[in-house]
Amino acid sequence: MKEIVIDAAALPKLNVPAYQLAIDEAALSMAEAGEIGTTFRTWELSSPTVILGRSSKIELETDREFCRRRGIGIYRRCSGGAAIVAGPGCLMYNVIVSLDEHPEAAKIDRAHQLVMSRVLEAVKKQLPAARKQGICDLTEGDRKFSGNALRISRRHLLYHGTLLYDVDLEVLQRCLAFAPRQPDYRDGRDHGAFVTNVPLDPTLLRKDLAGEFGVDGQIDARDLIPTADKLIEQRYGREAWHTRH
């Protein structure tokens, strides 16, 4: 597995949330086409941003008026799951897994198990009390600090998620409406009582995640830009994609 390395200074457009989402899907598309192999990357947005799941209903899952007043963008990713808030203090990760190498991951429950066991081991190096709850959440003391989503293609799995270490929880709570789907352990709590930051050093976490996924080389993100540009034109650069539900 190779790590996708991004030089945002050399490629300023990669600071735009739409491009980060396009890079995630570009990695999957290029792996499917045999242009690259399995990949890993981490990234973080410079300002609070709402990211919807592929089928999320924008009016049900977000407070659009609050986001509009605060200038917080709302975008849509290519994977399932509910809306999340990313931004400073929220480490994002993405892995592309080969189903030829891991055929069991073609089943959703096994895909969660395959990836989240590695993410949890990386987290536990700094936070031994962390555990997995619900379908694919990571928690400390019954409070969630990591949510995750996936997309399964013909020969590859895209799996990505969040790890909260210093995100603005007040903004997070204001951006999101009450969750339409909830794990049992949430017990009806609102975002403020359910979601938390945990004391993780993001630099160490990136290193530990790379180790758990067996990263052994690098890919320059510029190799993905032509595919990402096409996805921007088709989807991520279009308001109709982000607001379609």
Report on the architecture of this protein.
The mean pLDDT is 94. The chain is globular, with a radius of gyration of 17 Å. Strand 1, helix 1 and strand 2 form a beta-alpha-beta unit. With 245 residues, the chain is an alpha/beta fold. Strands 10-11-6-2-1-12 form a six-stranded mixed beta sheet, with helices on both faces. Helix 1 packs across helix 8 and helix 4 crosses helix 7.
Summarize it.
The chain has 245 residues and is of the alpha/beta class. The chain is built from 9 helices and 12 strands.
Q: How do the helices and strands line up, and which of them pair or pack?
A:
Elements: E1 2-5, H1 17-32, E2 39-43, E3 49-52, H2 58-61, H3 64-70, E4 74-76, E5 84-86, E6 90-98, H4 108-124, E7 131-133, E8 137-140, E9 143-146, E10 148-152, E11 156-164, H5 169-175, H6 191-194, H7 202-212, E12 218-220, H8 225-236, H9 239-242
Parallel strand pairs: 1-2, 1-12, 3-4
Antiparallel strand pairs: 2-6, 3-5, 6-11, 7-8, 8-9, 10-11
Widest sheet, order of strands:
10-11-6-2-1-12
Question: What is the string of helix and strand elements?
Answer: EHEEHHEEEHEEEEEHHHEHH
Number of strands: 12
The proportion of strand residues reads 15-25%
The biggest sheet, with number of strands, parallel, antiparallel or mixed sense and barrel status, is: 6 strands, mixed
The portion of residues assigned to helices is 25-40%
Distance between the termini: 35 Å
